[in-house]
Inverse folding.
């Protein structure tokens, strides 16, 4: 047990893949899968689970698995199960919502996107706006601080704004913008908010209502689960939208937005992952939503204590440059070794069994603005709740050797 009350050894025992011995600083790209999630997936594939039907037990099991997964995501982010739409990825879901919302937009309408966002919460909006003749307005981050100033939204959002797309945390540098403040400005002008929660969900307790997120999207493979994503909105919000769909497929919400047969095994894996997150802190007995909030808060405190060591250590290494970020951030840092291509750094660390990413990780506008895209972006290291102090020391030592 460490001084923030988080038992990392107990948590690590829940990740069979850690036995392979790699130090995983690549959680921002995808975490390892927790035992409860992979067990749940295996159970579905080994047992009698049919397509959804009330007529026989295997069909009822598919219905139950789906309902359980919706309830799990609702507990994770503070939404309602009936408002949870599943899709293959955040990118696919965002294209779906963007195309569907834009059916009601036209000339003179406006959308606001940010240059801090992953391209998954930028390009779908830019492309649908172009298609319907709407105007795109850009929120800028401050290169010197990595902040996304809220005040600029007073100028960016107008009575013609239909949607404000913003990230809950940057997957490049960790910045957590003031989403609630931005949403308040959007709502004051009658605009909707679409919040990319992919990077934030695994690190910070989330409440979509507090964030003011009309839509909140998150991918389970970033929080110990399988490769599937969910978009959460008020069921009434979904009711008002009509995507293209097959004639005989369900018209009810949320099924109206889910195309073809969902992967029941992955849905079971989602529930397993949320149950895992809820029990990161042992000995809790309350409802899962409360356990999730307590556990993720404890994990966050633990992660940030390691992150401080990591960033402090990086700052003390000659020849390492760090992309600036504010203190309100998730535990993710982007850096470069002077004179070394980031891909080369990642390879050298990889040779030592340390997993980091190099490139732009689709934070296209961020690296473009920083003038770093053409020269390989940056190396990204992110802390997750299974990271240890020893691994941080191992990473820092390896970076010193890699220079
Ligand atoms: C912040 C952020 N948004 C969106 C995405 C895209 O998620 P998906 O791969 O589920 O489309 C990612 C993936 O890295 C991400 O980090």
């Amino acid at each position: 047990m460490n001084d923030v009350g988080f038992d990392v050894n107990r948590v690590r025992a829940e990740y069979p893949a850690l036995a392979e011995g790699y130090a995983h600083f690549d959680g921002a790209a995808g975490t390892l899968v927790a035992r409860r999630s992979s067990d749940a997936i295996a159970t579905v594939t080994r047992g009698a689970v049919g397509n959804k039907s009330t007529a026989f037990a295997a069909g009822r099991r598919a219905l139950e698995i789906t309902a359980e997964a919706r309830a799990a995501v609702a507990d994770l982010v503070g939404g309602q199960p009936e408002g949870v739409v599943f899709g293959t990825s955040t990118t696919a879901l965002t294209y779906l919502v963007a195309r569907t919302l834009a059916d009601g937009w036209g000339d003179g309408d406006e959308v606001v996107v940010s240059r801090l966002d992953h391209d998954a919460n930028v390009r779908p909006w830019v492309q649908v706006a172009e298609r319907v003749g709407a105007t795109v307005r850009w929120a800028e981050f401050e290169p010197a601080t990595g902040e996304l100033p809220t005040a600029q939204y007073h100028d960016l959002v107008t009575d013609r704004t239909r949607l404000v797309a913003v990230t809950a945390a940057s997957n490049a540098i960790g910045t957590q913008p003031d989403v609630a403040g931005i949403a308040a400005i959007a709502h004051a002008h009658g605009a909707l908010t679409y919040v990319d929660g992919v990077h934030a969900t695994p690190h910070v307790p989330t409440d979509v209502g507090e964030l003011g997120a009309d839509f909140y999207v998150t991918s389970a493979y970033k929080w110990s689960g399988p490769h599937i994503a969910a978009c959460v909105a008020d069921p009434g919000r979904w009711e008002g939208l009509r995507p293209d769909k097959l004639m005989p497929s369900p018209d009810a919400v949320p099924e109206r937005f889910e195309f073809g047969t969902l992967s029941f095994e992955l849905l079971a894996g989602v529930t397993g992952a949320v149950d895992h997150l809820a029990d990161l802190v042992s000995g809790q007995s309350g409802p899962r939503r409360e356990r999730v909030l307590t556990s993720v808060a404890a994990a966050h405190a633990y992660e940030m204590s390691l992150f401080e060591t990591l960033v402090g250590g990086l700052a003390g290494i000659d020849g390492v440059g760090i992309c600036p970020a504010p203190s309100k951030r998730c535990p993710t840092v982007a850096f470069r070794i002077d004179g070394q291509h980031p891909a080369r750094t990642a390879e050298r660390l990889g040779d030592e069994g340390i997993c980091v990413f190099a490139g732009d990780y689709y934070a296209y506008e961020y690296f473009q603005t920083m003038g770093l895209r053409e020269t390989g972006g940056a190396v990204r290291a992110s802390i997750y709740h299974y990271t240890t102090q020893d691994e941080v020391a191992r990473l820092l030592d390896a970076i010193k050797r890699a220079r």
Notes: The longest strand covers residues 161-167.
